[in-house]
Design brief:
By secondary structure, the protein is mostly helical. It has one domain (about 5-80). The chain has 6 helices and no strands. The longest helix has 24 residues, at about 80-105.
C-alpha cells in the first residue's frame, strides 16, 4: 500500500483506532464486521477475512506483520495433505460416534 492508501485506511478506521489516542478497549461483533468491511473496501481482502487478527496486530502496533502471519497460516493449512487429514477426521468422527453410542446405552 502506498503512503496515501495507508493514510486513507487509517482515516477510515479512525473510529476504532483514533490517531494520537488509545484505541478502544473492546470490540463488539458489529465493530469487527465493520472493520472487516472497511478493510475490504480499501482493497485488503485477505486482511478483511481475519479481522480479529488484524485488530490484535493493530493493537500491538505490528499490523505490518499481517502478511507474514497470513502466509504462515496458508502454508500451514496447505502443508496438510488430504491423505493426512482424512484419517484424522475419520478417527475423530468414529470416536465421537462410539462415545455417543455408549452414552445412549446407559
Amino acid at each position: 500500500m502506498t503512503g496515501k492508501a495507508v493514510d486513507d485506511v487509517d482515516k477510515a478506521l479512525g473510529a476504532w483506532f483514533p490517531p494520537g489516542l488509545p484505541p478502544q478497549a473492546t470490540f463488539s461483533e458489529t465493530d469487527i464486521r465493520d472493520i472487516s468491511e472497511v478493510l475490504r473496501r480499501y482493497g485488503k481482502d485477505t486482511w478483511s477475512r481475519v479481522p480479529r487478527i488484524y485488530i490484535t496486530l493493530r493493537l500491538i502496533d505490528v499490523v505490518s506483520a499481517i502478511e507474514v502471519f497470513l502466509d504462515a497460516m496458508i502454508t500451514k493449512c496447505l502443508s496438510h495433505s488430504v491423505n493426512e487429514l482424512y484419517p484424522r477426521l475419520l478417527k475423530v468422527r468414529t470416536s465421537d460416534q462410539t462415545s455417543l453410542r455408549s452414552k445412549q446405552a446407559y
